[in-house]
Amino acid sequence: MNLYLVRHGDALSDTQDSARALSPNGRRELEQLAGALAPHVRATTIVHSGKTRAEQSAEILRAKALTNASVEVQAGLNPNDDVAGMAEALQHESRELVVVGHLPYVSRLASLLTCGDAERTVFAFDTGTCLALERLGTTWCVRWMLDPRLL
Question: Which of 5, 6, 92, 117 has the fewest C-beta atoms under 10 angstroms from its C-beta?
Answer without folding.
Answer: 92
